[in-house]
Automatic annotation (TrEMBL):
GO terms for biological process: tRNA re-export from nucleus. GO terms for molecular function: small GTPase binding; tRNA binding. Belongs to the exportin family. It is found in: Cytoplasm; Nucleus. This is Exportin-T. The lineage of its organism: Eukaryota, Haptista, Haptophyta, Pavlovophyceae, Pavlovales. Keywords: Cytoplasm, Nucleus, RNA-binding, Transport, tRNA-binding. The keyword Oxidoreductase does not apply. Gene3D superfamilies: Leucine-rich Repeat Variant. Residues 120-272 form the Exportin-1/Importin-beta-like domain. tRNA nucleus export receptor which facilitates tRNA translocation across the nuclear pore complex. InterPro entries: ARM-like, ARM-type_fold, Exportin-1/Importin-b-like, XPOT. It comes from Diacronema lutheri.
């Protein structure tokens, strides 16, 4: 059968906004053939050329979007998501009118809400990357509803929690991290715009959601993988969020309890270390380090590890003390530096 998929434009040049069954089958065959390294070279080359032509077409994105939401093939989902990522990266999406932008936003988020919990991780990661690329262009001006809708989506279960955390991780990796933001002045401006929008609209609710994910694991012992991911995400966000959102009477006891847990100590100590090294004026930093009060928990961890030593392990697991000692050592060094700066030492 032919590997060439039909153009999203009809013969008379008018737009074809939907695929018929035969066209969709040709599109899927072309994508599957493009992934098949063992296929006939001529057929595969024709399929690749046809797909490149589709991506370049003015309305090709509609074809990709429709293919994404209708296919059962992981390869077609991934190819469609990647094609849409390329559309945004090429700055073609930024030129979309309000109606086209809204269609893409709405369709992608509706697809996210229908994504099964057991969807392939590489599909979920690529979806998260695409959403973040659109956020970089549109938030908060043209997609102010994104984060409120993402937070509301959390109520749909464990698959939603997983996607929520993947989106937050991708947001850091693709845009908000110092490394990502420093790639260009344009990227830095976008990162600052998104951070400012989040501070006004959603970051408090996002941190509360991370706390709820962690507190559930502390309460039930279940879903530790999501708790670990939430700790990882929180450590990424601490450097730029209001410190009071995390350094408080709700979060700190939870973090210190996780520091003694074999599966969670690394993430908890990562958050505590970020809290210690967070940029602040010296006097405020010294007060903040004292508030963290890490020493009593370090003593408790040392005692617990000594109690476990003869058996070589136990429910809490080893290693928590080392990570906590790192956070405490960093706190001590920070306190000394602050005191020296203020002339107290």
């Amino acid at each position: 059968s032919s590997s060439r998929c039909r153009s999203p434009h009809a013969a008379d040049g008018t737009r074809r906004h939907t695929m018929d069954g035969a066209t969709r089958e040709q599109f899927e065959q072309a994508v599957l053939l493009s992934f098949n390294q063992g296929a006939d070279a001529n057929y595969r080359s024709a399929a690749l050329a046809s797909l490149e032509q589709l991506k370049a077409a003015p309305d090709g994105w509609r074809f990709c979007l429709e293919g994404l939401v209708q296919t059962a093939h992981a390869e077609v989902k991934f190819w469609s998501l990647q094609a849409l990522c390329e559309l945004v990266l090429a700055k073609r999406y930024a030129a979309f009118g309000p109606e086209d932008a809204a269609q893409l936003q709405h369709t992608l988020f509706a697809w996210l809400e229908r994504t099964p919990a057991d969807e392939q991780p590489f599909i979920k990661n690529k979806l998260a990357q695409l959403l973040v690329l659109i956020v970089e262009v549109d938030y908060p001006e043209r997609w102010a509803a994104f984060f409120p809708r993402l937070l509301a989506f959390l109520s749909q279960g464990e698959g939603a929690v997983d996607l929520f955390l993947r989106v937050l991780s991708a947001l850091h990796d693709e845009l908000l991290s110092p490394e990502a933001a420093s790639r260009s002045p344009e990227r830095l401006a976008a990162a600052n715009r998104v951070k400012d929008g989040l501070r006004v609209q959603a970051i408090g609710s996002i941190i509360e959601a991370l706390f709820a994910i962690m507190a559930r694991t502390a309460r039930t012992g279940e879903h530790a993988q999501h708790c670990r991911h939430a700790l990882y995400v929180l450590a990424l966000y601490v450097p730029w969020v209001d410190i009071a959102l995390v350094a408080n009477d709700s979060f700190l006891p939870l973090l210190t309890s996780f520091a003694a847990h074999a599966g969670l100590h690394e993430g908890a100590c990562g958050v505590l270390t970020e809290l210690v090294v967070k940029g602040m004026e010296p006097r405020a930093k010294l007060s903040h380090v004292v508030q963290l009060n890490l020493e009593p928990t370090l003593h408790a961890l040392a005692h617990a590890q000594q109690a476990r030593a003869p058996g070589g392990g136990g429910g809490g697991g080893g290693g928590g003390g080392a990570g906590y000692a790192c956070a405490t050592g960093t706190a001590c060094a920070t306190a000394i530096a602050c005191a020296t700066t203020m002339g107290c030492a």
